[in-house]
Amino acid sequence: MHVQIVLFDGFDPLDVVAPFEVLHAGRTATGGAVSVEMVSAEGPREVTGGTGGLTLRATAALDPGRPGWVLVPGASGRIGEPGEEAGEDTVPVLLGRALTTPLPELMRAAMAHPEVMVATVCGGSALLAMAGLLEGRPATTHHLGMDLLDATGARAVDARVVDDGDLVSGAGVTSGLDLGLHLLDREIGPRVAHAVEELFAHERRGIVWRARGPEPVAF
Fold first, then answer.
1. Contact 127/72 with Cβ under 8 angstroms?
2. Which end of the chain is more exposed for a tag (fewer CB within 10 A), N or C?
3. 75 closest CA partner among 171, 144, 11, 13
4. Mean per-residue pLDDT pooled into runs of 10, the chain (219 residues)
5. In degrees, to the nearest 5, what angle opens at C-alpha 75 toward C-alphas 126 and 107?
6. Letter string b/e over residues 30-62, b meaning 16 or more CB atoms within 10 A of that residue's CB
7. How far apart are CA 160 and CA 45, in angstroms?
8. 8 Å CB contact between 130 and 95
9. What are the helix (H) ranges across the chain?
10. Distance (Å, rounded) from C-alpha 79 to C-alpha 92?
């Protein structure tokens, strides 16, 4: 199981670091069956995150044809008030800048590849939706971005983690822990996921939403 975590200018550090640590622990727990790297659309480079300016290094270019997972984080910045002109440090502007890079086309290629699956944390799903890549797909994001997700063609689902087969999305920033654990559970098995969960002293929240079973009757 190989995971490429995408860095772009303005990324949210916790969206990246939380799943990275979970998956890296999964590597240890499996004796190397899990591998994870940080990549960017432009190739190896220093990439500066949003609020706080944490810089991480992408060690390779995003390879949309490499079997495994591609994980897209959201951006870190101000949300902005309704009617306020979007500033340079706001999340929509930071996500919009990412759309001007080669990232959207690389993600389009990744999502078209039968052996590549995509995961998102927080605003990562909004970024893909803004690029026109989630039309009609169930996904989740930060609670402040649910309207944006709906408006850009995705089907917003209010859940901690949404599993739609080759697309798995996590909600708010700390959901990166839950998403990473879900990927380990799904791809490797519950015993490894449970061991990592115990190591991190973290208890997964909520039910992973899937389009299975009967539709619930309205309460």
1. yes
2. C
3. 11
4. 97 96 97 97 96 92 98 87 65 92 98 98 96 97 92 95 98 95 98 97 94 90
5. 55
6. beeebebebbbbbeeeebebbeeebebebeebb
7. 32
8. yes
9. 13-29, 91-98, 103-112, 124-130, 146-151, 175-187, 190-199
10. 8
Looking at beta carbons, which pairs linking 160-164 to residues 24 or more positions away fall under 8 Å?
Answer: 160/205, 160/206, 160/207, 160/208, 161/206, 161/208, 161/209, 162/138, 162/208, 162/209, 162/210, 163/208, 163/209, 163/210, 164/137, 164/138, 164/139, 164/210, 164/211
Contact 171, 201 (CB under 8 A): no
Distance CA 159, CA 114 (A): 26
Contacts of 105 (CB under 8 A, 6+ apart): none
Q: Strands 2-7 and 68-72, how do they pair?
A: parallel
